[in-house]
Design brief:
It contains ten helices and 13 strands. It has helices spanning about 15-25, 65-70, 95-110, 130-145, 165-175, 195-205, 225-235, 250-260, 270-275, 295-305, and strands at about 5-10, 30-35, 55-60, 75-80, 115-120, 150-155, 155-160, 175-180, 185-190, 190, 215-220, 225, 240-245. The strands form four sheets. A seven-stranded parallel beta sheet has the order 3-2-1-4-5-6-11, with helices on both faces. It has a two-stranded parallel sheet with strand order 7-10. α1 links the parallel β1 and β2. α1 (about 15-25) packs across α6 (about 195-205), α2 packs across α3 and α3 (about 95-110) packs parallel to α4.
């Protein structure tokens, strides 16, 4: 089957990672169906391909018939749906990270979908958070329903439009200090969103290297602590802010109160997640096994964090 004849259905295609995955797959010549609850949220992705190549498709994630309608006729299905905090009846970790992937995997098996790619998260085997448990349970359920699924476990993801560096950069523009939860010793291995998209594209086109695995651990070339992330961020936006240690106990109390906000900056469960490092273990299948050379933060961060500098990108005349 030629690429232009293959339909790839992406759940969560209107999100941060999904937009980049859609772009790369459309450029590779595939037809992309974005299964989303709100089709309007994916309208901007239609420009990633030719007329009719990228199509938003309304889908009720809670209805099996709607899921089946979205998946029907697809050669490849990709699930990128995820939440960072619970809010409301339908946005619960178990529902989004465990039950939904299982339902999608089950239908993929019934519809004889050639390949199913599921995005999970790094460090979930060690973490005691509800978020991690739901992700790990989701992986198990996916393999029960679709044993040949490919699961990707990325560390924190960065790139234009991310909710990590952008959030802290925005906080640094109006706060006199930034909190170091637990002393800022938690380790991360930030990965560029473009590298995840390329990895998925390589899986779809079977351009993998070395050996094939069911689970790939994805991280960038640098392992940094939370404190070092702040330092890198502040250097990029040319701002000086105090870094104040926030003990675990106090952070959890604050997270409990902040979780009541419509879009909380911190929750108690997120504090629990920060108690575990988020790095790629030695000897596991990773980004290079998928034919992707990891991109350093220093290449990408200046391209979008300059918006948070005083005066903008050209505030420093010498740099300009």
């Amino acid at each position: 089957m030629k690429q232009q004849d293959k339909i790839i259905c992406i759940f969560g295609g209107a999100g941060f990672i999904g937009r980049r995955v859609t772009q790369d797959l459309a450029r590779a010549g595939y037809r992309v169906k974005i299964a989303t609850r709100i089709p309007e949220s994916a309208f901007e992705s239609k420009t990633c391909g030719n007329v009719g190549q990228v199509v938003p498709f309304q889908c009720n994630y809670s209805d099996e018939a709607s899921l089946k309608e979205a998946i029907s006729g697809s050669s490849v299905v990709i699930n990128l749906v995820g939440i960072l905090f619970e809010k409301g009846k339908n946005n619960k970790f178990e529902r989004v990270h465990t039950e939904l992937p299982a339902s999608i995997a089950k239908i993929c098996a019934e519809e004889n979908v050639q390949s199913f790619v599921h995005i999970s998260a790094l460090g979930i085997e060690e973490s005691k958070s509800k978020y991690a448990k739901s992700k790990l349970d989701g992986e198990a359920r996916v393999f029960e329903e679709y044993p040949t699924a490919t699961i990707l476990r990325p560390s924190v993801v960065f790139g234009p439009g991310d909710s990590f560096f952008n959030m802290f950069a925005k906080m640094a523009t109006f706060l006199p200090f930034l909190p170091l939860i637990g002393g800022g010793k938690t380790k991360f291995q930030p990965i560029y969103v473009g590298d995840i998209a390329q990895a998925i594209t390589n899986i779809v086109t079977n351009k993998t290297c070395k050996y094939k695995s069911n689970i790939y651990h994805l991280g960038g070339p640098e392992v940094v602590t939370f404190k070092e992330i702040y330092q890198i961020l502040l250097a990029e936006i040319n701002r000086d802010r105090a870094l104040v240690t926030l003990p675990w106990g106090i952070a959890k109390i604050q997270g409990s109160f902040m979780s009541l906000m419509p879009k909380p900056l911190l929750t108690r469960d997120q504090v629990k997640s920060l108690e575990t490092d988020n790095v790629v273990a030695k000897g596991v299948a990773g980004l290079k096994d998928l034919g992707v050379e990891p991109t350093a933060m220093g290449i990408i961060l200046p391209k979008y964090l300059s918006n948070f500098k005083k005066g903008g990108r050209f505030a420093n005349k010498n740099a300009a």
